[in-house]
Amino acid sequence: QKEVEQDPGPLSVPEGAIVSLNCTYSNSAFQYFMWYRQYSRKGPELLMYTYSSGNKEDGRFTAQVDKSSKYISLFIRDSQPSDSATYLCAMTGQSGYSTLTFGKGTMLLVSP
Amino acid sequence: EAGVAQSPRYKIIEKRQSVAFWCNPISGHATLYWYQQILGQGPKLLIQFQNNGVVDDSQLPKDRFSAERLKGVDSTLKIQPAKLEDSAVYLCASSRASQETQYFGPGTRLLVL
What we know:
The complex is a heterodimer.
Chain A: E1 4-5, E2 11-14, E3 19-25, E4 32-38, E5 45-51, E6 54-58, E7 61-66, E8 71-76, E9 85-92, E10 101-102, E11 106-111
Parallel strand pairs in A: 2-11
Antiparallel strand pairs in A: 1-3, 3-8, 4-5, 4-9, 6-7, 7-8, 9-10, 9-11
Chain B: E1 5-7, E2 10-13, E3 19-24, E4 31-37, E5 44-50, E6 53-56, E7 65-68, E8 75-79, E9 88-95, E10 103-104, E11 108-112
Parallel strand pairs in B: 2-11
Antiparallel strand pairs in B: 1-3, 3-8, 4-5, 4-9, 5-6, 7-8, 9-10, 9-11
């Protein structure tokens, strides 16, 4: 079993839809959870950063962490064609030099 | 603030040849990372530097890959000799300190024929 599982998609939605992206993980040592967005032929850029369980909202984006289920989600409201990209979940442990473990990424396509 | 710079952007080589990639991190960032991203996969950490010292190189194939960060600023990643399975995007990232936000460069796309 991989440490981080993420459905690669592609996920196709119409403009304005609510998008739900998810990852599951197996390592209970993970404490910090991130979502990165990666446009084609670009490096990943950090979208959301959360610690521990709960919700965090930033504009149209909401990140949700359920540590008891080892499950994290990213919700995108009122999706736009400019949101079309690959979304990577990433997580890391508590220690100062813990490395990031990434999911495979989910490709999202938002059609106008 | 300038972002992470990488060069070249693209490289095509034949197997068994050698290749080198260069990274210039964001000014003042102490931590530098090299990742390998194979098509359809998430980035995988190859090596992490704290200033000019190696913190983690546990996933670096040391028989063919090497990296250095002289003077704690720029870094180079070398592959010698290259194999077909090394075809990937090599991403450099930097952060002010470990556990802080990592900023990624655009990557170098390597194709080994």
